[in-house]
Specification:
CATH architecture of the largest domain in chain A: Orthogonal Bundle
Main location (chains A, B): membrane
Membrane topology (chains A, B): Multi-pass membrane protein
Organism (chains A, B): Amylolactobacillus amylotrophicus DSM 20534
Oligomer: homodimer
Helix content of chain A: 55-70%
CATH topology of the largest domain in chain A: Tetracycline Repressor, domain 2
CATH superfamily of the largest domain in chain A: SLC41 divalent cation transporters, integral membrane domain
CATH class of the largest domain in chain A: Mainly Alpha
Number of domains of chain A: 3
Keywords (chains A, B): CBS domain, Cell membrane, Magnesium, Membrane, Metal-binding, Transmembrane, Transmembrane helix, Transport
Strand content of chain A: 5-15%
Largest interface: A-B, 121 and 122 residues
Largest sheet of chain A: 3 strands, mixed
Family (chains A, B): Belongs to the SLC41A transporter family.
Chain lengths: 456, 456
């Protein structure tokens, strides 16, 4: 109830703002708008049409617009449109006023030519900082770090440090941690704003700082940075180059996005559909789901030709057709389960991961156990139903083998893909279950034709 | 490469620590251990056997042990074991030294009787705070909030505020935000540590603070709190009761865990297996995956009896058996996709969600489009292959209808469960695809028997 009330108030605020804007009460409008949180300002901006947005751009300074853009979600197409609605000089100014990691994110998604135009229009110092960030891979620590930060020298007094923070706080994305570097720019310590506040004014930074700093290198994967920040409960982690020089920091807000995105992509992988955009437009939804379905349809056709190959057998024993979907379905389910576990296990950081050999042996045994237990169950069920325990044994044996194979496919395919450097999450659930249809049918009909004489 | 090097150093540290402990160089051991980050101390503690852990407990004060326990992951069984290895008084002291949200989390997972023992042994003030937290639902803002915080009064000077922060910083989980309350304890503002540092010493808190505070109520779902913190880029959000009095705050580190857990549970749901614990013990893994598999096996048996019901038809036209797995498999894939999209859509906060009617209409049309396009494709493929376009039409029509139905099941079942108050994520992918095996076979054989005379 309470959240709904809150939402309604926000809606009302937006309605009022829109009226103020349309009736040209510009000064009141501007004052009330800037009174909102940056995030809400951004949500209002997004809710406008192109004319409204242009009007707002005229009204706000590049700095005010930049604060707002820092909170906008990363929808590439939208941001491109917004930039194109602005004068190039204005857009460039706004980008240089933003936190430079966010500006780099936006520019990375633009055409190289377009982003160069903006960079050329910016103050050179800002442009160079952003260019340096754009040069790291988007999924690495370097790609998500900011260089808008304050660092301190070890022989500074706490009083002078406070003066420096007061002076430069506006330029930094966060001042909750201050990193300490020596005169070679090597990272030698960290001190929190809380420690600075509590320390005596005449103490030296080096006497208060913590010397053991956990840091990351710019080329490591963003999910490993997320793991570090999560494990230690940090609000930020410093990034150092190969000479241990401080080059940036990754803050917790960027990490939350990383965790969300990775979860989304694992989930999308398992489902065989990109769930990033849950648009309710049927045509868009169709276009997103169809490619996988049609691709797998061809794999399914292969299974059909395989069954067709056994038409003589099927003609003689049409009872076999009764159990096709039971065997393929159950094996597919087992394959999906083991796929999910394997992908999740591979997402763990290296030191938490069991060794490759251990994983393989474990999955081989698990698949065998699951296969045998399920196979025995189905053997009894079919034997009782058809009063034919030899038929039951054929179905049970086929089921056990099919599950075992599907289970191994579900765990070994992502494992192999990971070792080859692909994202294991792209082996989707639908792919594994369609593949296991093929292997299950192959196993089933071969076992059946071997033992046919005994159960007919 | 670099991360591996880091890990190795940590391993070496642990080896060295273990040696120091075993050779009874107790003072060196204690010094080096406490030099580590709390998280690493905790990891070392976990890596020990029961004897080692007891030795460590003897060596560390309850406060030192509490700092370490604050970083331990939430594995219920382990934490219970650790507590039982301690003297009850020591354990109670340690719990009262921990951040009270973490202590409440641990106690909530214990037997009521056991947790009462610990609470009775604690200082009453701490016990009461923890009891109050335990009374909120574990998945709500109240369940994850902390009450270890500093609040300020509006007429305090910045200088006095700094003095208060210096004095109480140790008791608070974070001092990055200080919330301002009036003398009725009503939340009236927020001020960041950075703003305090930058403000003139003689200014009043009320002149520097931001008056528009985004807050949450204790009973709202933790995922909505996560959304708020994420959207606004906050490091914490205050929790207020129905009279707008400040009762606690939720910090970003707890939110990261919430986001991770929710993603995990959506993923587990889709896979039909709990991927929380990726243990490599085959027996444990089997026991976790088997219940779903066996349950679905019975649903699969229903499909088998259905096919059996059509045995006369199958005897006359064994060609029909060739396409069973193609139709059930493809429909199952479509169902899994729409399930994933539906679950994800339902996870959005209410104001981002399209209306129920809109979602249903959209899915009906999407399913129809996907069904028709896939059906036409398969009709052409089968027609060409078998040189029989009437057979192709039967398969295509069955496929289109089966996909349409599976698609609706995948989206409407979670939607219905959500409306009935269940977690939509428990409708697993394997369940939807096994259910769609049943409906697909029903559709396929009915269409085939209606049109049989024309294609044979």
């Amino acid at each position: 109830m309470k959240t709904e009330e809150k939402e309604k108030t926000t809606d009302l605020d937006f309605e009022r703002l829109r009226q103020l804007m349309n009736t040209n009460k510009i000064q009141v409008f501007k004052k009330e708008l800037l009174n909102l949180h940056f995030y809400d300002q951004g949500q209002f901006f997004i809710s406008l049409d192109s004319t409204g947005r242009k009007k707002m751009t005229k009204l706000l300074s590049p700095k005010e617009m930049g604060d707002m853009f820092d909170t906008l979600p990363d929808e590439e197409q939208d941001t491109q449109d917004f930039l194109q609605e602005m004068e190039p000089e204005y857009a460039a100014n706004m980008l240089s006023e933003m936190y430079n990691d966010n500006a780099a994110d936006i520019l990375e998604h633009l055409d190289d030519k377009v982003s160069e135009v903006y960079l050329d229009l910016m103050p050179e110092r800002d442009a160079n900082k952003i260019r340096r960030l754009m040069h790291y891979g988007v999924d690495t620590a370097g790609g998500i770090m900011t260089t808008d930060m304050i660092s301190l020298k070890p022989d500074t007094t706490i009083m002078d440090a406070i003066a420096k923070i007061k002076r430069d706080a506006d330029l930094a994305e966060t001042v909750n941690y201050l990193y300490v570097t020596n005169y070679e720019r090597t990272l030698i310590g960290v001190i929190s704003l809380r420690e600075i506040l509590v320390a005596p004014a005449d103490a030296l930074v080096q006497d208060v700082m913590t010397e053991k700093v956990i840091s990351v290198h710019p080329e490591i994967d963003q999910s490993d940075v997320a793991q570090t920040i999560r494990d230690y409960g940090f609000l930020a982690v410093p990034v150092i180059d190969s000479q241990e020089r401080l080059i940036g920091m990754v803050t917790v807000d960027d990490i939350i996005e990383v965790i969300d995105d990775e979860a989304q992509s694992d989930y999308s992988g398992l489902a065989g559909v990109n769930v990033d955009d849950v648009s309710e437009m049927p045509l868009t939804a169709t276009m997103k789901r169809l490619p996988w379905l049609i691709t797998l349809l061809f794999l399914g056709m292969l299974t059909a030709t395989l069954i067709n190959h056994f038409d003589v057998l099927l003609n003689e024993a049409s009872i076999l057709a009764v159990f096709i979907s039971l065997i393929t379905g159950t094996a597919g389910n087992a394959g999906t389960q083991s796929l999910a576990v394997a992908v999740r296990r591979l997402a763990l950081s290296d030191d938490e991961q069991p060794s490759m050999m251990k994983m393989i042996i474990s999955e081989v045994i698990t698949g065998l156990l699951i296969g045998i237990l399920t196979g025995v169950t189905v053997m009894v069920l079919v034997g009782l139903w058809k009063q034919n325990f030899i038929l039951g044994a054929v179905i049970g044996l086929s089921m056990a083998t099919a599950i075992w194979v599907a289970n191994m496919a579900g765990s070994l395919i992502p494992l192999g893909m990971d070792k080859l450097g692909f994202d294991p999450a792209v082996a989707s659930g639908p792919f594994i279950s369609t593949l296991s249809d093929l292997t299950s049918v192959l196993i089933y009909f071969n076992i059946a034709s071997l033992l046919m004489s005994s159960f007919l």
